[in-house]
Amino acid sequence: MGRKQRQNKKIVFSDTEYETPIVNNEEKGYRETESKSENSSNFQRASANKSQVYKTVYFDDKSTENDDEYNRENPDSDDEFFEQNRSVSRSQLKKNAEKLYEIRKTLPVYKVKDEIIPQILQNPVTILIGETGSGKSTQIPQFLMEIMDKNIAVTQPRRVAAMNLAMRVSEEYGCHVGEDVGYSVRFNNATSHYTKLKYITDGMLLREMMIDPTLSKYSMVIVDEAHERTILTDLLIGFLKGLLIERNKGKDEPDFKVIIMSATLDAEKFSKFFNNAPILFVEGKMYPVERYYMDKAADDIIDTTIKSIIQINQGEQSGDILCFLPGQDDIDKVVDMLTNIAPELPKEAPHIVAMPLYAALPPQQQMKIFSKLKPRQRKVIVSTNIAETSVTVPGIKYVIDSGLRKVKVWRHQLGLSTLLTVPISKASATQRAGRAGRESSGKCYRLYKESDYLKLTDTTEPEILRSEIISPVLMLKKLGVDDILGWHWLENPGHESLVASLQQLYTLGAINNSGNITELGEKMVILPVAPHLASVLIKAQEFNVLEEVIDIVSCLSVDNLLLNPSSEKRDEINALRNDTCTLGTSYGDLIMLKEMFDIFNNIKDPRERKAWCKEIHVSYKGFKNVNRIKKQIKDYMILLGNDVMDVDENDYDDDIANNKPLDVEHILKSFLHGFISNTAIGLPDRSYRTVTTGSLISVHPSSLLFGKKKDAILYIEFVYTVKGYARSVSAIKLEWLQEIAPKLQGTKVSTEK
Ligand SMILES: Nc1ncnc2c1ncn2[C@@H]1O[C@H](COP(=O)(O)OP(=O)(O)OP(=O)(O)O)[C@@H](O)[C@H]1O
Ligand SMILES: [Mg+2]
Q1: Any idea what the Cα angle at residue 369 is, between residues 138 and 156, rounded to 5°?
Q2: Do 445 and 371 belong to one domain?
Q3: N or C: which end of the chain has fewer CB within 10 A?
Q4: Residues 153, 253: one domain?
C-alpha cells in the first residue's frame, strides 16, 4: 500500500471573449445546425455544390502514399531554410518578437496562463486539451522554458510540423532557430548546447532514448498531437510511464514531468493510463470556421475537388486553399490538372498556383508551401493528412476535405501489408477544418454528406493495432523490457501479434533464446530501416557488398519505383527490361534494381535520363529519391562505426562501383539472411512451395522471373489476391539455403521438393 490514489480532476479554463460567433450563411439558402459532437454548435453549414455527389472509396490499394515513420521523416538537407533564418540580425529578431507578442497575448492559452501553469507544476502528468489554434504547441512550452531546470522536448508525429513550430517559436522568443529554441528531426539537428526547448519527432526522441534511457537532459516531455496515435507516439507514452516512476522515485518534488496535448483526444483514456492524471481543458478558439456539406455523395473525388477549388476561386477574392486528399496519386492528378487549367480561367479571379504536399516529397519541396506568392495569385495546397495537425500555413482561409485517408494495414497472420483508402475520424475532420481558422475566420467544404460525417468514428484507430510491430518490440528489448506481453502498452497490440514479432526477431538473430537483445540486435535498432533490411545491411558489410546492397535497399524503400505497364505494353516492356538487365534476367528483381539504378546514375543529362525512365517504365522522381535515401542509409552505416564497416566513405563513388562486376552470390546471400522466411522451392510446374509453411506461391507477373523455372526463390513481398504471389523475386541456389538456414536460430527449414 502506501500510494495514494489521486482524484481524477477536470478543470475547464474558459475565456468567453473567444466564444465562436454565429456565422450567417442564410444568403446561400441553406441553414442547418451542427451536431454537438464536434463542439462547435454555433456553425451553420451548406452544401458546396448540389450537383456534386460524393462516394466513399474503400479498399483501393493502388496509391503510393505510405505514411510510415520512414517517409514521415523523409530526410534531406534543409540547409537553405536554416541559412535564411540565420541571416536575420539580433535587433530584427527582437523587433519581430515584440510584434508577435501582441498576437500571442490574444491567444486563448495565453489568457489563462496564470491558471494553467500552477496546475502543470503541481502534477507529474497533465492532459491538456485545447481547440486547434488556441496556442498549445507554441505557448505552453514557452511558459515552461523559464521555469524548468533542464530541457523541454515537444514531440510531433511529423517532421515538417517539428520544423515549422521551431521556426515560429524561435521567432516569438526572439532567437535564431537552433539557439534557445531548436528542432531535431531525422538527419537534421538544429540545436546547440544552450537549446532549452526542442521540437522533435517522436521517432527521434525514441532514438535519443536508445542512447540515454532516462532522458537525463530533460525536465519535461510534452507529447503533442497525441490523438494521432502513431505507433511511435503510443510507444513513447508507454516508455514515459516507466520513466516517470524511475525518475521521480523517492522525490518530494517530481524531477520529471509529462504533458499530453491535443485538440481532440480521448482524454479519459490517457488520464487513466497515467494514474488518473488531471485533465485541463482550454476553451475558446481563435476564429470561427463555417462548415459546408454536400447534398449528395461525390462520384469522383478528384473532379469534385477541382470543381470546388474553381468555385471558391471565383467566389472569394482573398485567402488560400488547402485540400485534403487520400494519397499521392490523387494529389499529383489534381495539381497537374489545376496547373493546366489555371491559365484558361477567367482573369477576374486570382491566378491559381497549385502545390502538392505529401510525405514522400523532398523536404525543400514540402517547405515551398510556406513561400509568399505575388499579388493576385492564390495558393492551393493539395495535401495528405500530413498538413492535418500542427502546421500553420499562413494565408489559408478555405479547407476542402475529401474525408478520406490512406492507411497501411499489416496482417501478421499472412505477413503482408496493404494500403487502403478509408474514411477519416471525426477527430481528423475537426483538425482539418481547424486549418482554415488559424489566422482569420474561414470556411471548410466537406466533400461528403452530413449524415456520412455523423457515421465517422470519433477517434482514429491507433496505428499499433494495424501495423507490423517488429521494430517497436526490438526497441523494448533494447531498453531491457523482459515481459513484452505484460508491458504497460497504452494499446496492447495483442498476444498473437507480439508473439509473431518475437519469433521474427529470434529468427533474425536480434534476440537470443533467453529473449535478450544480441549484439546484432543492438546494431539493428539503430538503423532507420525495418529490422529485416537492417540485418541484410549488416550481413552485406561482412560479405563486402555493402555499397551494392545499400543501393538495392534504397530502391526497395521507394514506393512505385517500377511503373506498371498497360497490358498491351507489358510484353514489350518486359522484353526491354530483360535485355537491359543482363544479370537481372537470370537472378531476378533485386539485381535488376541495382542494374537499373547504375544505368540511371550513369546517364548524366537529365533529359536523357527522363527519356530512358519513360522508355523502360520506371519513375524518374522515384530514382531521384533512391539517391537521397541511399545517402542517408550510408550515413547511418558510417555512424555504426568500424564495428560494422570499415569502408572509406570515398569508396562510394558510383563510377568505381559500376566498374566492379556485381558479386551476385553475396548480394543475394545478404538478403537471404534477412528474408530466410520468404523463400520457396521450385516445383516442376513453375510454381513454388514456401520453405516455412509449405504453401503454394507463384511469381507475380510484374517480376523479371515470371514464367522462368528456378530451383529456389527468395522474395521480399508476399501479396495475396486470388492466390499467393511473390514479388521482388530473386533466384537462389538450394545450397545457399542449406548453408544459411541452419545458422539462423529458430527456423525449421525443409528444402525438400
Ligand atoms: N507558422 C506560423 N505562422 C503564422 N502564425 C502561426 C504559426 N504558428 C502558429 N501561428 C499562430 O499561433 C496560433 C497558435 O498556434 P499553435 O500551433 O500554438 O496552436 P495549437 O493550439 O497547437 O493548435 P493545433 O491543435 O492545431 O496544433 C495559431 O492560431 C496561429 O494564429
Ligand atoms: Mg498544436
Answers
A1: 35
A2: yes
A3: N
A4: yes
* 422 and 352 within one domain: yes
Three-point CA angle 150, 152, 154, nearest 5°: 170
What residues flank ligand 1, with Cβ below 6 Å? 107, 130, 132-139, 164, 168, 263, 286, 389-390, 392, 394, 434, 438-439
What domain range is 706 assigned to?
A: 678-741
Domain match, 372 and 409 both: yes
- Chain centroid to Cα 4, Å, comes to 40
Question: Which residue in the block uniquely carries the three cell numbers 520457396?
Answer: 680
Give SS3 for 49: coil
Number of other CB atoms surrounding residue 211 within 10 Å: 8
Closest CA to 13 of 178, 175, 126: 126
C-alpha cell at 51: 450537383
CB 411 within 8 A of CB 717: no
Is residue 661 within 8 A of residue 733, CB to CB? The reply is no
Strand order across the beta sheet in which 351-357 lies: 289-294, 442-449, 396-401, 320-324, 377-383, 351-357
Query: Of 416, 435, 462, at which residue does a domain stop?
Result: 462
Whether 128 maps to a domain, the answer reads yes
**Of the candidates 619, 92, 156, 562, the residue with the CA atom closest to the CA atom of residue 391:** 156
Domain count, the chain: 5
Same domain, 119 and 247: yes
439 is written with which cell numbers? 489566422
Q: Is the pLDDT of residue 278 over 90?
A: yes
CATH code of residue 221: 3.40.50.300
Which tens digits make up the pLDDT trace of 629-651?
888 788 888 877 644 343 433 44
Q: Tell whether the model's pLDDT for residue 234 goes beyond 90.
A: yes
Q: Which of 587, 580, 571 is nearest to 663 (CA)?
A: 587
Atom of ligand 1 nearest to the CA of 435: 26
What ligand has the least distance to the C-alpha of 107?
1
Residue 417 counted as domain residue = yes
Q: Ligand 1 centre and the CA of 279: distance in Å?
A: 21
Query: How much is the pTM?
Result: 0.72
The verdict on 261 and 135 lying in the same domain is yes
The verdict on residue 22 lying in a domain is no
